[in-house]
Model the fold of this input.
Amino acid sequence: MQNKQQPKMRDTIVLCPAPTMGHVVSMVELGKLILHRYGHRFSITIFLITAEFFETPCLVSYINAISQTYPSISFRHYPPVSYDTTLNRSKPAVLFECILLNKPNFLDSLQEISKKDKISVFVIDLFCTSALSLGKDLKIATYYFFTSGASCLSAFLYFPKIHEQYDENFKDLANTVLYFPNLPPLKAIHMPEPMLSRDDPFYYDLLYFCSNLPKADGIIKKPEPSYKSLHSKSNTLLSVLAASSEELMRMLQKVML
Done:
């Protein structure tokens, strides 16, 4: 009796954005770019948590429109999670916690998808750093998607070193100048607002993100005319990929092998 041939596993790319309009749209555009070039090979799954204080009618309408227009893009919605509302902290800090609390949901979804599909790449954004270890544990190539400028990325890569050099809040260091490799000097009081005070838990969330950047398999970002590559504080060359260039396509070809 002839054995039945097992159906071939599909190649799937999983994207994990923060549930805000800008982050979701950026990830969807990345998915659309991949489908434009490799729609015959990949499907796209996007994880989407529910954070009621960031959800807007525009975001809901946008997701519905994408689902109807692009059948190869699917969304996995997760219900709201309970978090401590008694703490005095910024909304971004709450968002980091909400995403962290969804880590078991992400794990269940990755494992479930892997039973019928081959997850070629797992792409996260900065708010979803807590999901980085999941990709690593499951042996899935895991990349950051970074949409800000190259100078900002370079500063983030070096920020853990800056953190070690000072104990005070940057907002209190009016006469202090910070020095980042290959970047112009920056006054401490001109750091991004979430980094000005260690009293805001979001400061440590960003530190956690910056510390984990070099641990990813690479960083996907939009190309800029003047930048070639970036280095981490350990001088290890990171795989910084231009999201709209041939380099992204070569990365996809590599993971398909």
Remarks:
- The chain has eight helices and nine strands.
- The first strand starts at residue 10 and ends at 16.
- The helical segments are 21-38, 57-69, 91-101, 103-116, 132-137, 150-165, 201-212, 246-256.
